[in-house]
Amino acid sequence: ASVLTPDGLSPLLVSEAELVKFVRLRAANDALFTGKRNTSVIAWRAILKEMGIQRKMSTSQARKKWENLKKKYKEMKNPPPGVTVNPTNWQWYSLMDDAMEGRLNDSEAMVSTASLGDDTDYRPDRPRKRGRDSYQSEIEFLVEGDDSRLSEETTRDRTETGSDRDEMEEERALLESDRDTVESERMVLEREKIVLDRERAGLERDLAALDRDRAALEREKAAVERDRASVEHERAQLEKQRADMDRERAKLERSRAALERQRAGLGGEQEVDLNDAAEEGERQAETETASVEKRQKFLDLFEKLIENF
């Protein structure tokens, strides 16, 4: 038996049981209706195919039917101020309340959107064209004054044709919109690619500069190592000279001791000559010592400079 839409005007082409399943499937597959372009058509096709009524109802009719059900439910649940309604008077209120409150989310299995076929699989069947005898019979009825049936059939044909045309125009508009979106996204990707290429070129330049800095640092490090080796060599030479000076100082001390012994047994001119020789030796030793100490200080300062570098 057919039932009426919530507005009580246009007849549904489904039974009460099919309408219940229609609502339950729509609620259980709400995740398919993401709001993106063309997803609504695909989701409704999957639901209609699951119910086996894809030849009785188009996707636009299914969408309008669902919108009418939601509109009627909202009017019953939240009537205008000053208007009192009894929701239980509408036989689908309880079903729609469960659907809108999420209690039917697990009532049916998720439908598959794969292998849905082409557009021709989802166009409602049109009434068969009647033969000449049929038209002759109807003409006879018209002659007798009963023209209501022909008028009704003609109106239904026009309505279904207009619905098909509207659905095709809507799908064509969606395809054009999708094409524009894809083209826009392609242009955005091209711009992003240009930016990435510029960033990659800048990164490569920075990398080359870093390599040059690293090479310069390696050269400076090698120069510091050479300077350190030179300082170590100078230090070794200085230590050798200091050892020579120590030997000379020891020799001088021995000469001074011998001089003191000789001074005790000599006098006059010999003593003066010996004193002069001793003083000259001391001055020479002090000069060499001062020179070595200056070189040592220079080497110490130079080594600290290299270490700080």
UniProtKB/TrEMBL annotation:
InterPro entries: Myb_DNA-bind_4. It comes from the Eukaryota. Pfam families: Myb_DNA-bind_4. One of its GO terms (cellular component) is cytoskeleton. Residues 146-179, 227-263, 280-292 have a biased composition (Basic and acidic residues). Residues 112-179, 227-292 are annotated as: Disordered. Residues 270-279 have a biased composition (Acidic residues). Residues 15-98 form the Myb/SANT-like DNA-binding domain. PANTHER family: DREBRIN, SI:CH73-193C12.2-RELATED. This is Si:dkeyp-38g8.5. It comes from Astyanax mexicanus (Blind cave fish).
